[in-house]
Write a structure and sequence with these properties.
Elements: H1 7-59, E1 70-73, E2 78-84, E3 87-88, E4 107-113, E5 116-124, E6 130-136, H2 137-186, H3 205-252, H4 259-287, E7 295-298, H5 299-316, E8 320-326, E9 330-333, H6 335-352, E10 358-366, E11 369-376, H7 407-417, E12 421-425, E13 434-441, E14 457-460
Parallel strand pairs: 8-10
Antiparallel strand pairs: 1-2, 2-3, 2-6, 4-5, 5-6, 7-9, 8-14, 10-11, 11-13, 12-13
Helix pairs in contact: 1-2, 3-4, 4-7, 5-6, 6-7
Length: 461
C-alpha cells in the first residue's frame, strides 16, 4: 500500500498501463492488417494460376490436360480442375474429390465442398473451357495467422525494453527530487539554509519554494528563541548574584535554629538557579556559533582540568571518580566545546548518583574514532526515555537529582557539531546505572604530536 503512494511507482504503473493498451491496439491492428493482406496475396496467387492456365491454353490448346486433375502446389494445397462436357474433373492427390457445380460464376468465391470451406477462382477460357483454381481456407488462414504472429513478435519484444527504459527515465527525471530529500535527511537540526532548486523540475519548484519559506520561518523562530534564552539568562544572572551575596551575608549573622535550615535551603536553590543560568548561557553560545575554527585538542589535559574542577562536588557527595585516559588522544574541536562535553557528562553523573557512588571515565582510540565513555552506578535512565533526555529541559519522572535538564542536551548539541555520535545504555546487569558512549572523528593531524613524553596514560582516582 505504501508503494502506491510513491509518485515514481504510480507514474510507472500509469505509463505501463497506457503502453500495454497502446501495444495491444497496435498488435491487434497489425495482426488484422497482416492477416487480410496475406489473404489478398493468396487470392492473387489463385488469379495468377488461372492466368497461367489461360496462357497455356492459348499456346497449346491441349496443354490444359497437363494441369487437370492435379494438386499444383502441395504445400499451399492449390488445386486446378477443368470442366469437361459439363462436369468438373477429379483432382489427383486430393483427399476427397471436389464436386463442383457446372454453373458456378466466374471470379473469386468461397464455397463449402464436402464439409470443407474452400476459396475458388473460376475463369472461362477463350475456347469455352472453364478452369477452377481452389485452396482450402484452413490452409489459407494458417498461413495468414503465421504472418500475423510475425508482426506481433517485435511489439512483444519491445514492450519489456520500453518498460525498462521508461523506469530508468522516470528515475532520472525524479533524481533531483530524491537528491533534495537526501540532502534534507542528512542535515543537522541547525542547518536551515535554503534548498538548491537549480536542477529541480519546474513542476516541483512551488513545493521547494514553500519548503525554503518554511525553513526561513523556522530559522527566524529559532533565532528569536535563542535570543530570548540568552537575554533571559543574562538578565537573571545579575539578580541571582545579588541574592547569593545577600544569602552569604545572612549566613554570617546569628540566626535562630529555625532560620538556619531555611537559609540552607535558600542557598541550595540559589546554587541550582545559578547553575541553570550558566547552562542556559552555554547552550545559547553553542547554538549561536558555527563549527569553524576547530583544531586538534589534547583530550587528556582537558579531562584532567575538568576532573580537578569537579573534585570538590564529588567530595561533597562522597562520589569516587576514576579516569583512564590515553594522553595521546586528540580530537578536532576546541577546548571550550570538549570541556563542556566532559564537564556536563561527569557533572550529570555526580549530581544524579546516590552518595557513595562511583563514576568511571574512559577515553581511548578505537575503530578509527575517539571513544569517550562515562558510566555510573546510579539509578540510570529508563530505555524509553534515553532519547528524550537529549532534549533541553527534559527530566525523567524518576529523577531526583539537582540537575537542570540541560547537560545532556548540551553534550548532544556539541557532539552533533563535531560529526560524532552519542549512545545511552544501562551500565549494570540489572539495567540500572547509566553509560554514555561518545564516538568522535579523529583529526587529520598526527595525534602523537600532542602526547607528552613522560605521561602516556592519565589515571585519576
Amino acid at each position: 500500500m505504501s508503494g502506491l503512494r510513491s509518485l515514481q511507482v504510480r507514474l510507472a504503473l500509469s505509463l505501463a498501463g497506457v503502453m500495454l493498451v497502446a501495444a495491444g491496439i497496435a498488435g491487434t491492428v497489425s495482426y488484422r492488417t497482416a492477416f487480410h493482406e496475406v489473404n489478398e496475396l493468396q487470392d492473387d496467387q489463385l488469379r495468377q494460376m488461372s492466368a497461367l492456365a489461360e496462357r497455356r491454353h492459348l499456346a497449346t490448346p491441349l496443354g490444359l490436360q497437363d494441369l487437370d486433375n492435379h494438386v499444383v502446389d502441395v504445400g499451399a494445397r492449390i488445386m486446378v480442375q477443368l470442366l469437361h462436357k459439363g462436369a468438373w474433373g477429379e483432382v489427383e492427390g486430393a483427399e476427397v474429390p471436389l464436386p463442383l457445380a457446372a454453373d458456378l460464376p466466374d471470379g473469386l468465391q468461397t464455397l463449402e465442398v464436402q464439409g470443407q470451406q474452400r476459396r475458388l477462382f473460376i475463369r472461362t477460357l477463350p475456347g469455352g473451357e472453364r478452369v477452377a483454381v481452389s485452396q482450402s481456407t484452413v490452409v489459407r488462414d494458417e498461413v495468414a495467422h503465421n504472418a500475423g504472429k510475425t508482426t506481433i513478435v517485435p511489439i512483444a519484444v519491445l514492450i519489456p525494453v520500453l518498460a525498462l527504459a521508461m523506469v530508468a527515465l522516470i528515475r532520472h527525471m525524479l533524481a533531483p527530487v530524491m537528491r533534495l530529500a537526501q540532502e534534507l535527511d542528512e542535515r543537522g537540526d541547525d542547518q536551515l539554509a535554503p534548498l538548491d532548486d537549480s536542477e529541480v523540475p519546474s513542476e516541483v519548484l512551488p513545493f521547494t519554494a514553500a519548503i525554503n519559506r518554511l525553513l526561513h520561518r523556522v530559522e527566524l523562530a529559532l533565532a528569536q528563541q535563542k535570543r530570548f534564552v540568552a537575554d533571559a539568562a543574562h538578565e537573571l544572572r545579575t539578580p541571582l548574584t545579588a541574592i547569593s551575596l545577600q544569602a552569604e551575608l545572612l549566613a554570617d549573622l546569628n540566626l535562630s535554629e529555625q532560620a538556619q535550615p531555611r537559609l540552607q535551603s535558600l542557598q541550595r536553590g540559589i546554587l541550582r538557579a545559578r547553575h541553570l543560568v550558566a547552562q542556559l548561557l552555554l547552550l545559547a553560545r553553542l547554538q549561536g556559533r558555527d563549527a569553524a575554527n576547530r583544531d586538534a585538542v589534547a583530550v587528556g589535559f582537558v579531562c584532567q582540568s575538568v576532573l580537578e574542577d569537579l573534585l570538590p562536588l564529588a567530595d561533597q557527595k562522597q562520589v569516587v571518580l576514576t579516569a583512564n585516559v590515553d594522553m595521546a588522544c586528540s580530537v578536532c574541536s576546541n577546548t571550550m566545546d570538549l570541556g563542556a562535553v566532559l564537564r556536563n557528562l561527569i557533572d550529570n553523573a555526580i549530581r544524579y548518583i546516590q552518595p557513595g557512588g562511583q563514576v568511571d571515565i574512559d577515553i581511548e582510540y578505537r575503530a578509527a574514532a575517539l571513544h569517550i565513555c562515562v558510566r555510573d552506578n546510579g539509578p540510570g535512565v529508563p530505555e524509553h526515555e534515553r532519547e528524550l533526555v537529549l532534549s533541553p529541559f527534559y527530566r525523567g519522572a524518576a529523577i531526583t537529582g539537582t540537575g537542570s535538564g540541560l547537560g545532556l542536551a548540551i553534550v548532544h548539541n556539541i557532539v552533533q557539531r563535531m560529526a560524532g555520535s552519542i549512545a545511552l545504555s544501562a551500565s549494570l546487569p540489572d539495567a540500572s546505572g547509566l553509560m554514555v558512549r561518545i564516538a568522535l572523528p579523529i583529526p587529520a593531524t598526527d595525534p602523537s604530536s600532542l602526547a607528552t613524553p613522560v605521561l602516556d596514560v592519565l589515571h585519576f582516582q
